[in-house]
């Protein structure tokens, strides 16, 4: 009789652990809201006549800093009507609270595109792009540009494409979230089994 009570209690413990793990998995779900861009510098659709130097995208929440080259990137490319648009800047990106930034000098006149990617507050990557027009005033120095996406710390012209931002709307595979939920289940199960064994040993 006591053994049956212990078994029933054990089943309740395991079910409770499963519910807790499910709740943890739900709360960690990538379905939570991502960061949204609220301000661009240079502004989207703007006509820029002087070298902007700094390019910045500000979002509505803090961005997660995983270190240089980890989940964040920013590329400046153009002109759009060129046979082969070039990339500008050194590929180095910094985070400042809700903002992602990089520096670059632009080349020939035309429409330029800023593509960026970062890890939002919910742990999910978010990437977008926007455009502006570059019409340099007289006397503005023009940069040569690079055929390959620049990689921070590497010489211009590198063919290493690992630092290229993901296509807009890119997401992290659900495997990370599934692994976290599985780990929670394993941990909860281990705690439950430990409790069962202790209670069984105490039962005559």
From TrEMBL:
The keyword Zinc does not apply. Residues 34-133 form the CopC domain. Residues 1-33 form the signal peptide. The keyword Signal applies. Keywords: Copper, Membrane, Signal, Transmembrane, Transmembrane helix. GO terms for biological process: response to copper ion. The chain crosses the membrane at residues 175-196. PROSITE patterns: TAT. GO terms for molecular function: copper ion binding. Pfam families: CopC. GO terms for cellular component: periplasmic space. It comes from the Bacteria. InterPro entries: CopC_dom, Cu-Rt/internalin_Ig-like, Ig_E-set, TAT_signal. This is Copper resistance protein CopC. It comes from Cryobacterium shii.
């Amino acid at each position: 009789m006591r053994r049956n009570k212990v078994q029933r209690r054990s089943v309740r413990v395991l079910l409770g652990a499963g519910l807790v793990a499910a709740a943890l998995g739900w709360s960690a779900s990538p379905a939570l809201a991502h960061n949204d861009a609220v301000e661009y510098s240079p502004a989207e659709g703007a006509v820029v006549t002087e070298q902007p130097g700094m390019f910045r995208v500000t979002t509505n929440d803090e961005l997660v800093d995983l270190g240089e080259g980890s989940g964040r990137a920013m590329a400046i490319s153009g002109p759009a009507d060129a046979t082969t648009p070039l990339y500008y800047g050194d590929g180095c990106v910094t985070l400042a609270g809700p903002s992602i930034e990089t520096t670059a000098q632009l080349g020939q006149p035309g429409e330029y595109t800023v593509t960026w990617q970062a890890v939002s507050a919910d742990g999910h990557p978010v990437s977008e792009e926007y455009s502006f027009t570059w019409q340099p005033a007289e006397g503005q120095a023009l940069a040569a540009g690079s055929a390959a996406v620049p990689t921070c710390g590497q010489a211009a012209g590198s063919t290493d494409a690992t630092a290229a931002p993901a296509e807009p709307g890119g997401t992290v595979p659900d495997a990370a979230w599934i692994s976290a939920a599985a780990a929670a289940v394993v941990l909860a199960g281990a705690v439950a089994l430990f409790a069962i064994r202790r209670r069984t040993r105490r039962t005559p």
